[in-house]
Amino acid sequence: MVNMLGAVIILLASTLAGFYRAKQYALRPRQLRELIAALQRLMTEINYGLTPLPDAMGKMGVQTREPIKTLFLHAAKQMEPPLGHTARESLQSGIEQAWGKSAMKADEREVMLQLSYSLGTSDRQDQTKHISLAIQQLMHEESRAQADQMKYERMSRSLGMLVGALIVILIF
Q1: Which positions ≥6 away from 89 have C-beta within 8 Å?
Q2: pLDDT digits (tens, 9 = 90+) for 96-155
Q3: 29, 48, 66, 103: which has the highest count of C-beta atoms within 10 A?
Q4: Taking the mean position of all CA atoms in its chain, how far away is CA 19?
């Protein structure tokens, strides 16, 4: 009886681990699309709305879902008067705050960190160019993420259950 309970727990745990990994593969493209859309709106706010960067980032934070929301809201809060950090420091802090909660990988993080070096340091046209470049790079990463999802999402679910079954067979 105890052996059977142990086997069920092992099988359940490994299956859940496989489903969690598959969920990460599914979340990454969605979060990248949200980040791209937020950056496009940010570019519009800066270019056409003539909105100051802290206010524009605050708007993006309100309009998006987690973890992108945390990134922009934290960055906007860091730029406001009591703290008064630079745009680079604020965006980097927002990235650090939000990245652990996201399914995005180091490549996307690097694109955002590169963007942080150019935001707030030049005129609107230059910032627009840097945001456009970041969007293009993130679109490339999104296509890679979709390919990874197609390859590995279903396999992760199956592999989790199969590894659990293998462990149960080997133990008992």
Answers
A1: 78
A2: 999 989 999 999 999 999 999 988 788 888 989 999 999 999 999 999 999 999 999 999
A3: 29
A4: 19
- What tokens appear for 104 in the block? 């995005």
Residue 91: both structure tokens together: 């965006």
Task: Return the structure tokens found at 45.
Answer: 């706010």
Question: Alpha carbon of 74 to those of 5, 55, 157: distances in Å?
Answer: 45, 12, 34
CB 137 within 8 A of CB 39: no
Angle at the Cα of 93 (from 89 to 99), degrees rounded to 5? 140
Q: Which two tokens mark 156? A: 């992760």
Segment (H or E) for 34: helix 2-47
